[in-house]
Design goal:
Helices cover 46% and strands 15% of the residues. It contains 17 helices and 12 strands. A 4-stranded mixed β-sheet has the order 1-4-5-12, sandwiched between helices. Strands 6-10-8 form a 3-stranded antiparallel β-sheet. It is globular, with a radius of gyration of 21 Å.
């Protein structure tokens, strides 16, 4: 089948057969589809969409483009579980969630991605730990999951390799916000990881790929439908991304916040709420608890006793990071040479964040990619972000800007000034966790 004929058919609104979608996936995997043809296919799907059957066929083909893990022979003694977020700004939930669930008896082979569009990637955050290997082979992944209980890694060459290439192309061609491509990307990786249960964290708001609640709900239902159609136990939560999640944006800075969270330091209330909510759902899907409330209690216990931190530390060590990282993270994480406060221009209440613009500002500092080959700056970003609703006096710090030089810092502060609004009125609160979706 000629690549251009398949692309033309989808461009013109046609429905692709399973054989045609398998041909696309083969072409992406073996390189017979050029970079421009992969981009053209993604753009055609972006504008024309895929039917339910096409989504399932594309997901199945991408799942089977490489190794599909089977955990039966590993005799883990517990359920294989995971969570996936559709992407946000300051979203470091996975860093705490995987060890919390592992400490509660689950096994979490978390296949994560790098930054996509304006959002940060979990894999890039793990890259802030010196020596940490995000790309072990399949045998290494199996060993760490069995011995430790969790492993946060990237896609290996074996797992859903078609998605690996398509993901990178989507990042730089303006085709990220496609429900079919998002769904197939997420679920092909998760199905290839051999999961028994998956919780989807579907973001909505100014920092999400889908700012509209109805669109986010459509994505959540699409994910649940494809997951269930593939025999996967799956639940989706709609969560708020109308402001930075936590107090930091940037890879080393977010890792620092995660370490503080796991070791009894400050815990941002919104970050804490969504982390515990997702942990509870994972424990329910794994039948480690009977109810969501029991799951929350069990997750909190793992956190407050320090067991979750111990699991995180063991995971870091098992994957090549420092054995004392949890105790001495400040010694290992890189720091930006310029740190400047971004101050309130007037008195009032912090009322609006254009969270997407904040994510773009972090990319401008060097904390994200403009091209697939870009090397990111792990040190730059923002910290000590005040939450929406904060009462401010003129000159009060809203955030700290971490930059490579003064010019970059000033440019980022100009972006923040456009992204943030201060008003005389107290803003209405945004619920952190919204709808819970268990059926398509």
């Amino acid at each position: 089948m000629l690549p251009q004929e398949i692309i033309r058919k989808k461009r013109d609104g046609g429905v692709l057969s399973e054989a045609e979608l398998q041909a696309v996936v083969r072409g992406i995997t073996d390189g017979s589809f050029t970079e421009s043809q992969v981009a053209a296919f993604a753009m055609a799907v972006f504008f024309r969409g895929l039917t339910g059957d096409e989504c399932v066929a594309l997901t199945r083909a991408m799942t089977n483009s490489g190794t599909v893990l089977r955990w039966d022979e590993s005799d883990l003694g517990g359920p294989v579980l995971d969570k996936h977020s559709t992407g946000g700004v300051g979203d470091k939930v996975s860093l705490m969630l995987a060890p919390i669930v592992a400490a509660c008896g689950g096994f979490v082979p978390m296949i994560s991605g790098r930054g996509l569009g304006h959002t940060g990637g979990t894999l890039d955050k793990m890259g802030a730990i010196p020596g940490y290997r995000v790309d072990p082979d399949i045998a290494g992944l199996r060993r760490v999951v069995k011995e430790v209980g969790c492993a946060i890694i990237g896609q290996t060459a074996d797992l859903a390799p078609a998605d690996r290439r398509l993901y990178a192309v989507r990042d730089v061609t303006g085709t990220v916000e496609s429900i079919p491509l998002i769904s197939s990307s997420i679920l092909s990786k998760k199905l290839a990881a051999g999961l028994q249960g998956l919780v989807m964290d579907v973001k909505t708001g100014s920092g999400a790929f889908f700012t509209d609640l109805d669109q986010a709900g459509l994505l959540a239902r699409n994910l649940v439908a494809i997951g269930k159609g593939s025999g996967l136990a799956i639940t989706a939560l709609l969560t708020d991304m109308d402001e930075v999640l936590g107090t930091t944006v940037g890879h080393a800075l977010e890792m620092e916040e995660a370490v503080a969270y796991l070791t009894g330091g400050p815990r941002d209330p919104r970050l804490h709420e969504v982390t515990i909510a997702l942990a509870a759902e994972m424990l329910v899907l794994g039948r480690l608890v009977g109810t969501v409330e029991e799951g929350k209690s069990k997750a909190l216990g793992a956190l407050t006793t320090g067991r979750a931190g111990e699991y995180f530390s063991r995971m870091v060590s098992a994957l090549g990071g420092p054995q004392d990282f949890l105790q001495k993270s400040g010694d290992y994480l890189v720091k930006a040479p310029v740190v400047k406060p971004f101050a309130a221009s007037r008195s009032g209440f912090l009322s609006v964040m254009d969270t997407r613009a904040i994510g773009v500002a972090a990319i401008g500092l060097g904390g994200g990619r403009r091209a697939t080959t870009d090397v990111i700056d792990l040190a730059v970003g923002f910290s000590r972000f005040q939450p929406i609703g904060t009462k401010l006096e003129k000159g009060d710090p809203i955030a700290l800007v971490h930059a490579r030089d003064e010019t970059a810092a000033d440019a980022a502060m100009a972006e923040l000034a456009r992204a943030i609004k201060i008003t005389d009125q107290v803003p209405d609160p945004h619920p952190m966790v919204g709808a819970r979706i268990t059926e398509a």
